[in-house]
């Protein structure tokens, strides 16, 4: 039976990149029922919201969701996809395709994945006035002995790390590393924290990751502080396999990782719960180039390939990724960010041609 895929364009360049990916999915005649309900900033005037009931009801029924990008209008969509669907694991592959525009002298064979905890950490922003914190915890002192009342007027942000959430993301990362090892990767999990300064929250994250790793003796393990990890990603990217990190650290490192392999236009992602998943590019809505037909749809097309794999269409997923790789290798039809002149849809057509 055909799988129900709901495509949500979202804001900015989102409708353009999802249109490109959806064109390929339809023309390739995969066993998919693709629905594109109204959503995003372009329907706010008509429906009074970027996420009409029709779109939400289809998402509730969907086997998978392909999403464009979140701007200011589509915050409700992002909240639904992440917090209502409880998609706790944000998987962001960083893979170099020969021919892409990497700033590194030797980007060959970069192929690692950042597994970002998607529901805890610093997101969503849990913030307020320091005076409220001083009132709630009048006797608390930090490492240098200061009370909250000593700071004066200002704001605070709370970071949440739980045992359950960390165990869950650690196990997801380990299962992914085990799966990748079967396909030839090194089978290594790298835990990233800032435990030397955030002793309690990062300390718990590191300890729980290491506890879960005990169930995976076939996997290698290492730990780095986030600043050191950033340096190592630039200096030794080929030595990375699966990186597991809390929400904000994973978010920041994945942008760095994307630049190593050619930029945000190439970086896909998938967000998984135990029952649902949605797929989107790592890049944002890029309003400065929206509507110009020049945005690179690679990240969304590769996200669609991840979606195909999730839906059990592994052969089709591999073929689609290989088609993208072939277009980059030839360097004849690339978008402006990759040194070419192709439009968004011209690139999609080139990929489709290689995929058939």
From TrEMBL:
Which PROSITE patterns does the protein's record reference? IDH_IMDH
Q: Which domain of life is it from?
A: Bacteria
Question: GO molecular function terms here?
Answer: isocitrate dehydrogenase (NAD+) activity; magnesium ion binding; NAD binding
Give yes or no: UniProt keyword Oxidoreductase. yes
Instruction: Please name the InterPro entries in this protein's record.
Output: IsoCit/isopropylmalate_DH_CS, IsoPropMal-DH-like_dom
Limits of the Isopropylmalate dehydrogenase-like domain: 4-351
Q: Which BP terms from GO are recorded?
A: isocitrate metabolic process; tricarboxylic acid cycle
What Gene3D superfamilies does the record tag this protein with?
Isopropylmalate Dehydrogenase
Which keywords does this chain's UniProt record carry?
Oxidoreductase
Asked if the Swiss-Prot or TrEMBL record annotates the protein with the keyword Oxidoreductase, the reply is yes
Into which family does the record put it?
Answer: Belongs to the isocitrate and isopropylmalate dehydrogenases family.
Give the protein name, as stated in the record.
Isocitrate/isopropylmalate dehydrogenase family protein
Per the UniProt record, the source organism is Candidatus Abyssobacteria bacterium SURF_17
